[in-house]
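User: I need a structural model of LysR family transcriptional regulator from Cupriavidus malaysiensis for a docking pre-check later this week. Nothing fancy, just the predicted structure tokens so I can convert them on my end. Input:
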Amino acid sequence: MSQIHFDLAALRSLVTGMELGSFARAADRVGRSSSAVSAQIKKLEEQAGITLFRKEGRGLALTDAGEVMLAYARRLLELNDEAAVAVRGTGLDGGVRLGLQEEFGEAMLPEVLGRFARAHPRVRVEAAVARNADLLERIATGRLDLALIWDDSAAFGYRLQGVGGVERIDEAPMCWIGAHAPAWQPGGGEPLPLLAFDRPCQFHAAATAALDQAGIAWRVVFTSPSLAGLWAAAAAGLGVTVRTRYGLPASVCALDAAALGLPPLPSLPLKLLRAGPVLPPAAERLAGIVLEALEALAAQRRGGAMALAA
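Assistant: Understood. Predicted structure tokens for LysR family transcriptional regulator:
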């Protein structure tokens, strides 16, 4: 039986199409015509010998085989890109300092640091997992090269100071988070039990503002200095909290706000900050890997099997 050699360019078109939700937009990203990308996808199906897509509404969605192909495509492209960077960047050294939010620590940090360390073993990486205010202060004072933040500056009236570059990654809707079977029910006469950080937090501020506007009584029943503490309290059914869908552990879930009579919440921009307009090559390379990982997470957040416009 002859070996199948999947075309990396075709696999890249597949992954890009899934991340962008459209093969037409993927064609622009990879620098090919829409008909060329369609031909690539058709060839992948022919090589695989199985249907990778099914009709869903007016578009296409991945079959189970397509999901398997997508997962392997991401791994193959990651190795390809990692090899390309590694052979060109063997001389990189020095140090890079990265700061990020708690919800991205477990979901993204091991993959990002693993890829970077394999490609650039002579570069020392320092990672800090902290809250927004701390990250902003560190990058403004030159103690971080890169920082991943929730940018609430528009809502809270401050400006990003001491930042050399800002890259917008996603606009993530906030959502009510709680146990899979929340104990609080609307109309019960009890204030909504809230779980909050023990310091000022833009998520908590947005939640209480929305509740006050909707005329829903609330009370803080639990505070924690860490996101892990909030997840544990939510899983135990002590109350509800507010976050985005990024980094949600399996023990909690995004609640159906309409069914529970809870008000809608705003979205929050996710941004990558650079300490300067031009960073050392090692820092720029780490920024590239972080952005690639975040694009994949953003695609997952927007909803697993995407309907694609062919």
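Before docking, keep this in mind: Residues 155-159, 304-310 have pLDDT under 50 and may be disordered.
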